[in-house]
Amino acid sequence: MLFYFCNTEIAKTRSSAEVWLIGRGTDHLSGSHLPTNGDVLRFMMFFHTDHKLTLKEAAYNSVSRVTDLWVRARIPHQRIDSAVRKLLKLNDKYVQLKKSRKKNSARDIMNQEEFVNKLQHLFDIATSDALKTMRNEEDKEFLFKQRHDVLSCSMAGVDALQSAKEKRIVTLQQRQQNYAKKMKKKSTVEQENDHHNLHSSPDSSSSASSDNEEFTLPCERQQRRQRKQPRMNIVNDLAVAGALDRISLPDRGATYIVAAVAKALGHDVGTMTLSRSSIRRSRISNREKQAAVHHAFIHRKPLLLHWDSKLLPDITGRKETVDRIAVLVTSGGEEMLLGIPKICRGSGKNLADACLATLDDWDIRQQIRGLLFDTTASNTGLKKGACSFLEFSLGQDLAWVACRHHVMELVLASVFRVLFGPTGGPDILIFKRFQQAWPHLNQSTYQIASDDMFDSHTAVRRAEMLKFTKSALEDSQPREDYKEFIMLCLIFLGGGDSKNVSFRAPGAYHLARWMAKAIYCLKLFMFQSQFSMTDKEKQCVKDMALFVSLIYVRFWHEAPLGIKASLNDVQLLEALGSYPNRSVAQAATDTFNRHLWYFSEILIGLSFFDSRIESDVKKQMATNLKIPAFDDSLKRLKSPPEPLSSLGLANCVTARTATIFDILCVNGKMMAQNFLNKDPSQWQEDPSYQELNDAASTMKVVNDSAERAIALMQKYNSSLTKNEEQKQYLLRQVERHRKNYPSCAKTLFMKK
To answer: I need a labelling partner for 262 at 20 to 30 A (CA). Which of 325, 348, 383, 734 fits?
Structure first.
């Protein structure tokens, strides 16, 4: 039974008591804006406490009043029972918090703050397809603004003119339908009469013939009327709209281009929807449509959460900067940008809150199985790091997947610091000098490493790296500087083709461009005869070039391969242990020992799929899955007292390691039982192992996706729109267009 109290019927004999975290119950909902979670919860509490209704009855009364406001706002809303469940779920969350109200731990305080913040958000009961079904652009814009900030705008009442217009349209459509039915019925009757007369009269043939010359059926007359042809609007095409956004073409410029291209192709511009305002509306509509498209994979697979942040100018044009955080998810080699919202500052809690809010927008909290991040203190701090906050909020044991490129960046930075000393400013001066001198250098005259630079140990290493770099160049590289680095190492070691060698001009050289340290040092060595350097600088350049070409390039190139991570880490430390330059080796070893993330209980499980690991080791790893997990989840191995090769990969495996299978596939633990009971020599033939192996091979272990998203935000930060919601739509539109058309090759356009 539905109980509903109108505002005029509510007795106001006493005020409601103060409710912890929520405030006083109220018998009033503001009609100027859609109610927030807090508004609805306080409204329900009034019915529950003051009118002694059951919680469910109070919820139904509250939702009934709320839906009235949504009807007034002309926004399609969910069924009342669905909205009631949403409200009761919010109340259940409050009840859980209330049980620990007297506790003052950091976790309890964080949960309370998160709940209070949620109360300020819109009690969103719009249907999932509301934006598609709503025709009035002002109503859509109102919903957008209410979702962002309920106080950003208000509704003064129902638009009488618009309502009357829509009623007239409905009435006209009904009249047209009735007229069509009437004419169809009349035509049928007349055709039956003609047919009857044709067979009943001997001279019906001649009479019918004469009648047809003068008589035309009403339906025929209607067909003769030329209907107004719909105007062509090519910007409604997602590919066209995406291309315009991708090149950051303003609406006015798009008008010029569309008109010129249409005329060149022989179209009558007069029959097209073509104006700056119409193109603007079409582009906004297409961005919203694209944003509403959820990639299927995010709702059926376990996901890894990626994020990265950067300080950027505010899109509003004010002279201030804001932190932007790129939030993405990946699974099975697929990735999807969820959003790049702004935050007040890049603290661990703010980063975590932004990630959680974005996950809630997409309703995929429950699918997150791991976190992929750069190893900064704001991310990895055990008490105030974003990872700790996220793991606690998501309520499950997550895999902490540290970006391997970032780890390798730290190793390179430590070696550079030992050789060149600390750098006082953002720029590296020797690189700056070299960039300025580059136009004056003869690129056909360069030198490579001489044989006397290698001892018996490094000579063997040199031969191995020559073979490796040649093979690596055959692989597709995601970035040109990655390919350049491998090519320079090959040339430096003496494996380049002197007839076909060409060098790219030196690029950015500031400290943030970590790859520049390796690339610049290799070029500096090759052109040292044409570039003035001190003896100390020459020695530092030589030592750096040897390190990156003999040690660094292989482990950096294989960093994205998660299944090789654990064994590669062992081999890297072994290579550093025998490297002749001890100061360089020690600096690299000390840094890398602080980042043994891939010897955690969970991530060590990726080694099950490394074909280089012997069967005996894998068999022991499978056996150790029965060992109870450590009391505290081991997120990374802390500088082991013995070499990793002596420790052994199997000794890092516990029962918690099996979590990696559920990260790779749905019900991965159950699937793994199909091959774990077999001898490792038979695993390759097992279908379950093959499926998990495919997932492990494509699992992201580098945060390049988040870095590309930040670069995307940088490029479009000041382009096309200053509206925050439209900016997010724009970013997702461009990202999808880039996936569909990674280059401007003609063949790509022919396929689409």
So the answer is: 734
